[in-house]
Sequence to fold (218 residues):
Amino acid sequence: MNFRFFLAFLFSVVASTSHAQNLLANGSFELGAWVQNSFFAGRMDVPNGSTVIDNWVVGRAGGNFWWMQGPVHYNPQDGNYCVDLDSNLQVPTTYIEQTFSTAIGQQYSVSLYFASQGNGGPATLSVQINGGAIGASSTGSGAGGPEPDYNYLVWTNISFSFTAASTSSTLRLQDATLNDVHNCIVDNVSVVAVPEPSVCALASMTLLGLVACRFKNR
Fold:
């Protein structure tokens, strides 16, 4: 095999370990049959059990689940849409979830962007895998802005990790806010496999060894 070709191939292997693929589909909520059906501009009220947002299932006992369209009335973190979880103190609380394939024993990282309604708060989000919490985050200054437009949302990136115990896992993002004022707003959700350190180290060592041999034999 041509040395330069093999070197390029090995570089691509090493690079691929640091750019893992998002295992979720439609992580920024861009795809689906969005239709404004709320008295608030740019909002779609989504019922319990709905799959109108492609690849996601909505759960709610009451309260509201808003699929929100930007950028005029909102400023999504990624793309033109985000979602608003507003349980209105109804139990079980409002959530959105998606099931994806996993490998038993593999570690994964969950990342998303989180804001609170009008930047007020605190609003609290629970991040769960297969019904078990892997983390929670609160955000909001307590000084919320005016309705109905939230085109100045401040987004915070949060991340948590888990190790898969089955060949499929369900990620649930659930409202855990203990008041009826400020909502959890989420966008740009991803789940990626954490690269195995041994794989990265082996590829790097092989690459360095081949380069050393190449120069030695010149």
